[in-house]
């Protein structure tokens, strides 16, 4: 028999687990709130659909141009971010699908990743130059020439995302691209992105099991705060046909920049349960195969 208990607060849940009132919990071990778990317990990795990404405001002239978005995407060293901040609890990606997804493509994930050579090629092919003689590369847009000198909005209450923003700042400083971090309270952060008051922001979203991306990159999508719009992209997203052709288009268009997928975890007291294979939507997925001691 499995008994389920509800708790009004995370601290009550943590205390109940630590005192062995309950034997199993799910947890995001990348969150500071989970630091209270203690004692001797087994950890079972759970694949997650939680994506951390960088979004662009395409109504800002500099990001109305796909090449500028490509440069930002190719300039993020995702593997360094994961190893430095998330350890074994996340997987770096440059495409919007995790490694276990049927839509994942190893070659294209590598092609869209960190590459100084790719950035230099993009700049050369699109005639980037320091037109203003201020030390920053300039991009030619429909509205004129603009510095690739941008702000990055981040939730100041998320320690990991602030660390990530600092790493991104440092990565682009080496390329003579200025990324100014704007760390805002959660309330101000939400207001800024929902009102379009940003160049870029770090976001996090739990995707549906079918990895529907329309809300992030479809025209008038619910979380498309940067107002990216492409009939071709919307058609792909509405069809749900995420094949190689779609991924190639995504990497060229860069409606947003995937950075990593977080993993979730199931915690059990040492030796209590064996052979757990939970999913992001069902911790009891293979319960008939468990060994309970």
Characterize the structure shown.
The chain has 293 residues and is α+β, with helices and mostly antiparallel strands. Helix content is 31%, strand content 23%. The chain contains ten helices and 13 strands. It has helices at 10-18, 66-74, 78-86, 106-111, 116-125, 159-173, 186-194, 214-217, 231-239, 244-253, and strands at residues 24-27, 41-46, 50-56, 90-92, 138-141, 144-147, 149-155, 178-184, 200-206, 256-262, 264-269, 273-274, 291-292. Strands 4-10-3-9-7-8 form a six-stranded mixed sheet. Strands 1-11-2 form a three-stranded antiparallel sheet, with no helix packed on it. Strands 5-6 form a two-stranded antiparallel ribbon. Strand 5 and strand 6 form a beta hairpin. Helix 2 (66-74) runs antiparallel to helix 5 (116-125). The longest helix is centred in the middle third of the chain and has 15 residues, at 159-173. It is elongated, with a radius of gyration of 21 Å. The two termini are 12 Å apart. The mean pLDDT is 91.
Observed structural traits:
293 residues, alpha+beta, 3-stranded antiparallel sheet, 10 helices, 23% strand
Query: Which radius of gyration do the C-alpha atoms yield?
Result: 21 Å
Oligomeric assembly: single chain
Binned, the helix content reads 25-40%
Through-space gap between termini: 12 Å
The counted number of beta strands is 13
List the helices and strands and how they pair.
Layout: H1 10-18, E1 24-27, E2 41-46, E3 50-56, H2 66-74, H3 78-86, E4 90-92, H4 106-111, H5 116-125, E5 138-141, E6 144-147, E7 149-155, H6 159-173, E8 178-184, H7 186-194, E9 200-206, H8 214-217, H9 231-239, H10 244-253, E10 256-262, E11 264-269, E12 273-274, E13 291-292
Parallel strand pairs: 7-8, 7-9
Antiparallel strand pairs: 1-11, 2-11, 3-9, 3-10, 4-10, 5-6, 12-13
Helix pairs in contact: 2-5
